[in-house]
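Hello support,

Our group uses your service weekly, and this is the first time we've seen a run hang past the timeout. The protein is Tryptophan dimethylallyltransferase. I'm not sure whether the cause is the sequence or the server load. Input pasted verbatim:
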Amino acid sequence: MRAVDATLGEVAGNQLQNLCRIVGIDETDPVRLLGDVLSATRSRPLSQPPLWPSDVADDNTPVEFSVQFEDNGSRHLRILAETIPAAPGPAANLQAARDLIDALAGRYDLSLDRLHSVQDLFSSASPQGKFSWWFSLIFTPDGAPKFKVYFNPGVCGAESAPHLVEEAFARLGLPEAYSTISKYALRRGELDRLTFFAVDLDHSPQSRVKLYVSQHAARPADAEFAASAVPCIDPGLARALCSVLAPGTEVFTGRPLISSYSFVEGDHEKPSNYSLYLPIRDYVPNDAVARERVQQHLRMHRIDPAVVDEVIDAVTDRRLEDNAGLLAHVSLRLSPNRTGTTVYVSSEAYGGTPRRDR
Ligand code: TRP
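Update from on-call engineer: The timeout came from a worker crash unrelated to the input. Re-ran successfully.
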């Protein structure tokens, strides 16, 4: 239960502390970083409307949590966030994101070369689209927090997105990447849309550069084909995810499936990772059904299904039958010799996904 005059910082902070406990992470860094990224929205009472209509979550909460389970048993906790300044607007939000990176660079050992080589492409004096730059804050039980920046390929208008992405890959030493992805995930014209281009800000050789494509009205076979861009993985697992989380769905006509590709050190024309994001909230009557299906998926990947309840209990005490959207997305990450599942859980600080008639 939440106090009448609770702030976003208090509610999200409490959820984050609970999630840290489950994943076994010291809460000091996460809590401080949540405050940094919430910025002007932190001390805003939830009785007032959101300061900015962030697209991070359906109810405009500017943060979303996720817990990543590797099939080797390791776990990570992540926060997807948009930083919103006191006087928000497309240009002010972009500036706030840049300022946050500067502040983080003063405190953590960040690798900023990739960011610096592409940031001008994804900047604009009058940014377009639903956001300019988002952040992922990634916490592990051991080790310093890691950061990822997501850029909006449509920041200068949707028509220039392909050029920006192609140029960004080229600058990062991946001149073939765009044409590879085009062949596997940009085949259906307007239905396949460039959604996020992301770079990691850490020194690790893993997951350097990532491109996300929203695949509207896609079939499970489209996801399977998209996965087949990556050598030495089983693309059939993408189709299996669809059939467990959205059984009977032939065409994903609600929120789109999203395919992403990561290029890590040593990758040239082919990526070494494919992830499929399934917006489960649009394909279930409510979160009780979503919970069951996510548990079934975890069982198939030999991950203890009880973690789903721990994650849910960390963020809410509402009845799961009352709405869908607490479990927002589920993603499956496929690399040679490694798979992982990530469960995205909404804060619902501003009421959660608007109820549909079902
Ligand atoms: N809310 C947006 C959406 O659902 C963006 C987003 C938030 C998202 N978390 C995500 C997209 C996780 C993919 C996966 O599309």
